[in-house]
């Protein structure tokens, strides 16, 4: 099954600034400093804008452990005008260092990815020294420490219909699967095919409601309509791909591809995978003609290192 997950609400609302000017002497002055010039005429000077961080993903060491592919995603509370100056104030320190770089994906969001996967079982400290930004001394410096857990790297072969899960470099389990069957083309893309490429796990639910609404089918009378409660669902993209327990059809697991794009697994295999899954774990899928877009979810490893670094402002 497959669904397009609803966007999570922002943890902190984005601040909205409105600038206005009035010639009337009775107009109120808001958030402005009043200064005296040589002629004794009072003028207003607009208050300096303050840049803050609206959100950091993932959560800190006390809330979760993350996988070896995890990105650091920083969202600011307003558009960043001088990206190079801000990026120079962002620091990442790991107990077991690897090369890494920032990439700006919007005017407010920048993402840190390493050249190779993080080393497992360590701590990584992120610090943003925004108080050092000119005109931004009122801002508070922010830091967050991440805990990297076990290295979980899964390889899904859609042709042999097997998912191999490696934990800290050793094969831990082989799980029979069924991937996307293909055959439903929208805008030139076969959306029933599972995307091939390096995915990262983004979240999980013990039971996920999956419906056909992602493909525009909402009428229960439509033969393509479905709405099912699916156990042990681990999300691996924004386009609705999961690793989850197969809702029946166990005869196809390990034999053929019959899903709408997700990776269906055996009940025991799906439950086990759900239990070990951390956000930022690597799920590499091979064997299909549909390529994973690097902007689909946390699929940043789809870009090679040279391509990734081109997104830096430094």
TrEMBL record:
Q: Where is the L,D-TPase catalytic domain?
A: 152-286
Q: Does the keyword Phosphoprotein apply?
A: no
Q: Which UniProt keywords are given for this protein, alphabetically ordered?
A: Acyltransferase, Cell shape, Cell wall biogenesis/degradation, Peptidoglycan synthesis, Signal, Transferase
The active site annotation covers: 244, 262
Looking up InterPro entries in the UniProt record yields:
Big_10, LD-transpeptidase, LD_TPept_cat_dom, Transpep_catalytic_dom
Q: In which pathway does it act?
A: Cell wall biogenesis; peptidoglycan biosynthesis
Query: From which residue to which does the signal peptide run?
Result: 1-21
Among its keywords, does the record have Signal? yes
Source organism superkingdom: Bacteria
Put simply, this protein is called L,D-TPase catalytic domain-containing protein
UniProt source species: Nonomuraea rosea
């Amino acid at each position: 099954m497959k669904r397009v997950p609803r966007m999570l609400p922002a943890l902190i609302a984005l601040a909205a600034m409105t600038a206005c000017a009035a010639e009337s002497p009775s107009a109120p002055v808001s958030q402005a400093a009043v200064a005296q010039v040589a002629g004794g005429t009072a003028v207003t000077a607009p208050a300096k804008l303050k840049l803050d961080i609206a959100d950091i993903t993932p959560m800190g060491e006390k809330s979760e452990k993350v996988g070896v592919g995890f990105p650091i995603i920083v969202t600011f509370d307003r558009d960043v005008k001088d990206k190079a100056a801000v990026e120079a104030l962002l620091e990442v320190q790991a107990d077991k260092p690897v090369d890494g770089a920032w990439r700006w994906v919007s005017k407010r969001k920048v993402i840190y990815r390493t050249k190779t996967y993080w080393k497992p079982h360590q701590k990584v400290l992120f610090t943003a020294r925004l108080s050092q930004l000119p005109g931004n001394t009122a801002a508070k410096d922010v830091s967050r420490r991440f805990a990297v857990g076990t290295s979980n790297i899964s390889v899904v072969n859609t042709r042999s219909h097997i998912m191999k899960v490696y934990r800290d470099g050793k094969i831990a389990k082989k799980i029979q699967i069924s991937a996307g069957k293909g055959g439903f083309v929208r805008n030139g893309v076969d959306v029933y095919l599972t995307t091939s490429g390096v995915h990262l796990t983004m979240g999980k639910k013990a039971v996920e409601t999956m419906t056909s609404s992602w493909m525009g089918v909402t009428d229960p009378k439509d033969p393509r309509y479905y709405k099912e409660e699916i156990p042990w669902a681990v999300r691996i993209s924004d386009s609705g791909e999961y690793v989850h327990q197969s809702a029946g059809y166990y005869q196809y697991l390990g034999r053929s591809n019959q899903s709408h794009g997700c990776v269906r697994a055996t009940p025991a295999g799906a439950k086990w995978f759900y239990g070990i899954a951390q956000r930022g774990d690597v799920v590499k899928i091979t064997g299909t003609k549909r390529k994973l877009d690097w902007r689909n979810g946390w699929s940043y490893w789809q870009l090679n290192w040279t391509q990734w670094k081109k997104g830096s402002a430094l």
